[in-house]
């Protein structure tokens, strides 16, 4: 069985289309679990209509995306768990294609598909502009979506192993969930929201799990947070994004990797500090946050590093300013 887990927070404008696309899946019955983080925009009225067929959990405060997804995952009973954003619409065979790809590659703990941009108010609302074909890390330890903003003309039409998956739509194997969870958390709840998918991808790589990209599974996603829009984003998004960069590094990176990538990482950190000092001093509290939760970071780091199966010398190849991937079929053939 496949469980679909969704976290909503003032998502009313997307839910009808998202829910319809779930109902139209051609893979048979799905278990759907929705956690609402104290929505105030009419989302809850729509969710009450879904209670007869799906499980809906209502939080009385916004606990964040990470904690909400963990809440839903703990309630899920499927062998596969599809973590899905409410602003995603799926093609009819999306789930079937994702599960088939994962089944054919048992070393992949997570599977992602081809995400294109969805603009619900545009005349042509399902575009052929790529949103994500997996995520990759640059040499300054920043993670980005592979293919983002490119026109899709088949350049990502081969199954490939990528560094990780966008949290907008990612399928997890049950064994993967159990193996990579730290203190019962798949997504780190110190993150609250933003970058938690990059953190999970990095942790999974450290623990020896692969992420498979399959172009046969297509969906459309509303993208509101992109690097070039940073200055126009609400404070809360930029605040969490800044603090989470350091939380992610503090748990996952070895000293060797930090030394090897010192110059690009230090330059990026200096730019962030300069921005906080000269442009927006509200960001200073985001820079201080990792120190405030240092006990949690140290504790989680110790757990992650104790489970390390892949050295950072082997992972260094992935940290490149242009996205890297490994052809999945060739890799499979070489192992047989």
Q: How would you characterize the overall build of this protein?
A:
The protein is built from 13 helices and 13 strands. The chain is α/β, with parallel strands linked by helices. The chain has a single domain (about 1-330), classed as Alpha-Beta Complex (Spore Coat Polysaccharide Biosynthesis Protein SpsA, Chain A), CATH 3.90.550. Helix 7 (about 235-250) packs parallel to helix 10 and helix 7 (about 235-250) crosses helix 11 (about 295-305).
Give the helix tally: 13
> What structural category characterises the helix and strand content?
alpha/beta
Q: What is the architecture at the second tier of CATH?
A: Alpha-Beta Complex
Identify the CATH class: Alpha Beta
- Major sheet characteristics: 11 strands, mixed
**Assembly state (oligomeric):** single chain
The Rg value, from CA coordinates, equals 19 Å
Q: Give helix and strand order, one letter per element, not per position.
A: EHEHEHEEHEEEEEEHHEHHHHHHEH
What's the number of extended β-strand segments? 13
Averaged pLDDT, please?
94
Distance between the termini: 29 Å
What CATH calls the topology is Spore Coat Polysaccharide Biosynthesis Protein SpsA, Chain A
Q: Beta-strand level of the residues, as a percent range?
A: 15-25%
Features:
336 residues; alpha/beta; Spore Coat Polysaccharide Biosynthesis Protein SpsA, Chain A; eleven-stranded mixed β-sheet; 13 helices; 22% strand; globular
């Amino acid at each position: 069985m496949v469980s679909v887990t969704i976290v909503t927070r003032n998502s009313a404008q997307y839910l009808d289309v998202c829910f319809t696309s779930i109902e139209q899946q051609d893979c048979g019955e799905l278990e759907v679990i929705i956690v609402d983080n104290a929505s105030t925009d009419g989302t809850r009225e729509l969710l009450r209509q879904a209670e007869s067929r799906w499980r809906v959990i209502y939080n009385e405060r916004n606990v964040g995306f990470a904690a909400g997804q963990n809440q839903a995952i703990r309630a899920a009973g499927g062998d596969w768990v599809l973590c899905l954003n409410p602003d995603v619409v799926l093609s009819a065979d999306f789930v079937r294609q994702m599960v088939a790809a994962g089944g054919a590659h048992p070393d992949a703990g997570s599977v992602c598909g081809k995400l294109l941009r969805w603009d619900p108010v545009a005349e042509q609302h399902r575009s052929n502009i790529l949103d994500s074909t997996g995520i990759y890390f640059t040499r300054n330890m920043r993670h980005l979506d592979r293919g983002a903003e490119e026109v899709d003309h088949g350049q990502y039409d081969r199954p490939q192993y990528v560094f990780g998956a966008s949290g907008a739509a990612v399928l997890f194997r049950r064994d993967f969930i159990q193996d990579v969870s730290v203190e019962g958390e798949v997504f780190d709840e110190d993150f609250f929201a933003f970058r938690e998918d990059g953190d999970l991808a990095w942790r999974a790589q450290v623990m020896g799990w692969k992420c498979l990209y399959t172009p046969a599974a297509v969906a459309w996603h509303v993208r509101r947070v992109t690097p070039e829009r940073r200055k126009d984003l609400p404070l809360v998004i930029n605040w969490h994004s800044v603090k989470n960069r350091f939380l992610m590094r503090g748990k996952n990176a070895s000293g060797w990797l930090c030394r090897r990538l010192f110059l690009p990482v230090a330059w990026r950190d200096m730019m962030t500090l300069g921005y906080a000092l000269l442009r927006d001093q509200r960001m200073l509290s985001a820079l201080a946050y990792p120190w405030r939760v240092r006990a949690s970071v140290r504790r989680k780091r110790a757990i992650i590093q104790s489970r390390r199966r892949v050295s950072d010398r082997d992972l260094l190849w992935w940290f490149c300013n242009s996205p890297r991937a490994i052809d999945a079929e060739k890799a499979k053939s070489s192992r047989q």
